[in-house]
Amino acid sequence: MNQLSTLSDPAAAASHPKAGAAQGAVLLLGSSLTIMGAVMIAPILPKLAAEFVPGNPAAAGLVPLVATGPALAIAIVAPLAGWLADRIGRKALLLLATLVYGLAGAAPALLGGLGSILLARLALGAAEACVMTCCTTLIGDYWQGDMRVRYVNRQVVTIGVVGTLFFVIGGAAGEHSWRYPFYLYLLPLLLVPAIAALLWEPLRERRAAPAAAALSEGPAALSGASLAFLLATGYLLVCIGMVCSFVVPVQMPQLMIEIGEHSSTMIGMASGVGLLATLGGSIAWPWLRERIGRRLVNSLLLAMLAAGLYLLAQAHTVQAILVAVVIHGLGAGLLVPNAILPLMHKLTLSTRGRGLGGFTSALYLGQFVSPLVVLSCSAGFGGLRPAIVAIAAGAAAIALAWLIAALKSRDDA
Fold first, then answer.
1. What's the confidence (pLDDT) of residue 264?
2. 13 falls in which pLDDT band (50, 70, 90)?
3. Within a 10 A sphere around the Cβ of 28, how many other Cβ atoms?
4. What's residue 14's pLDDT?
5. Highest mean pLDDT range out of 40-54, 66-80, 93-107?
6. Segment 390-412 mean pLDDT
7. Where does the Major facilitator superfamily (MFS) profile domain start and stop, copy by copy (predicted)?
8. pLDDT tens, residue by residue, 337-380
9. How far apart are CA 196 and CA 257, in angstroms?
C-alpha cells in the first residue's frame, strides 16, 4: 500500500528516494574504513618500536596501543556516535567523520613523537566509530526485507576483502619506512564527494512526511522491556563472539612459534587462511539463516568458535593449526550479520542510530578485551593453551544455551 501511494503521489515519490547500487557502494566502502584502522599498521609495528623504544624503554608499552588504541576509542565513542546520528543526522555526521578519519589517519606520517601519534590514532578511532555507526544505520534506513539482509552480508564480506587487500598494501608500503602506510589513510577522502552527492538524510524524510516515514519502518518495531532485552542479547552475543574471534589472530603466532614454526610467511599464510574462512562463513550466512533460522545459527557459530579454539589449543603441527583456524573462521564469519540483523529489523528510524551505536561499541569492546581475557585466563589456568581451552568451554556453554532456546521456539521474528 505504501508503494501504491508513492506511485500515485509524485511529491511522496520525491520525498522517498530509492536506494540503489551507487548508495550501496558508498556505504560498503565507508564501512570498510574500520578494518583499515588496524590492518595497515600491524605490519609496521616492529619498525615503529625500533624507532621509538631504544631511546625510551617506557615507550615499549605504548607501541601496541598504536594498533589497538582505535578499537578502544571506537568502543567508548560509538554510543555517542549513535546518539549524534539520531540527533543531527547520519549524512552530516558521516561527512564530518570521513574528513576527520582521513586527516587523523595520515597525521602520524608527519608527527615526531609516539605520544602525539597515539593521540592521532585515538582520534582516528573516534572517527571510525562515527563512520561505522552511520554506514550501518543508513543500510538499515535505506533497505528493508531481503535487500537489507543482502547489504548486511555484503558489508561484512566487503570489510573482509578490503582488510585482506590493505594488509598486503600496508606491508608493502612499510618496507622502506614506517611512515608510508599512514599516507594511505588519505584515500578515504575520495569518498567525501560521493557521500555528499549520493546519500540523503532519512531523518529529514521523517520531518517532511512523518506518517509515510513511520509506515516505511514497518510494523515490527519493539519498545520498552522487549527492546531492551533484544539490545542486551545482541550486544552480549557480539561482544562474547568477538572475544572468541580475536583469540586466533592475536594468539596463533605465539602457538606457531611454540611448535617451532618461526617463518613469518607461514604465520601470515595461516592468518590469510583464517580470513578466507571468515569470508566463507559470511557468504554462507544467508543460506544457513534461511534453512535453520537465526537462533540455530547463533548456536552453530558459537559451537564452531568453541571447536576451533579447542583444536587450536591441542594443535602441535601447522596442519592441525590450519584445520582449527578454518573451523574457527567459518564461525566468526557468521557472527556479525546474524547478531546485527534483528536489531536492524526492530529498531525504528528515530532510534536506529543509538541502537546500532551500542552494537558497534560492544563489537569493538570485545576485540579490545580479548587479549586481556586470555591474559587473565592464562594466569588462572596455568598457561596459554589451558586459557584457550577455558574460553572454548565458555563458548560451548553459550552455544548450548542458544540451542535450547532454538529448540523451544523456532520463531525468529
1. 61
2. very low
3. 20
4. 44
5. 93-107
6. 88
7. 23-411
8. 999 988 888 888 878 889 999 999 999 999 888 888 998 999 99
9. 48
Mean pLDDT within 249-271? 79
Mean pLDDT throughout 177-198? 91
Residue 349 · residue 203 · CB < 8 Å? yes
Mean pLDDT across the chain = 84
CA distance 213 to 194: 25
- The length of the chain in residues reads 413
**CB-based burial, 127-152: b 16+ in 10 Å, e otherwise:** bbbbbbbbbbbbbbbbbeeeebbebb
Q: Which domains can be identified in the chain, with CATH numbers?
A: 15-216 (1.20.1250.20), 220-413 (1.20.1250.20)
Quote the cell numbers at residue 317.
Answer: 603441527
**Is 50 exceeded by the pLDDT of residue 215?**
no
Find the angle CA(49)-CA(55)-CA(57) to the nearest 5 degrees.
Answer: 65
Contact assessment for residue 250 and residue 370, using Cβ atoms and an 8 Å cutoff: yes
The reported pLDDT for the residue numbered 299 is 95
Tracing cell 612459534 back to the chain, one arrives at 257
